[in-house]
Design a protein that fits this description.
62% helix, mainly alpha, 2 helices, 29 residues, flat
């Protein structure tokens, strides 16, 4: 994962939305 990409997604993120990285971390991929 590129840091830029993570920053972008976190920028877009809010409290009610679990972004794909978090979901993928949860399911262990």
């Amino acid at each position: 994962m590129k840091l830029e990409k993570i920053e972008e997604i976190q920028n877009f993120d809010n409290k009610n939305f679990v972004h794909p990285w978090e979901y993928m971390k949860d399911v262990g991929q």
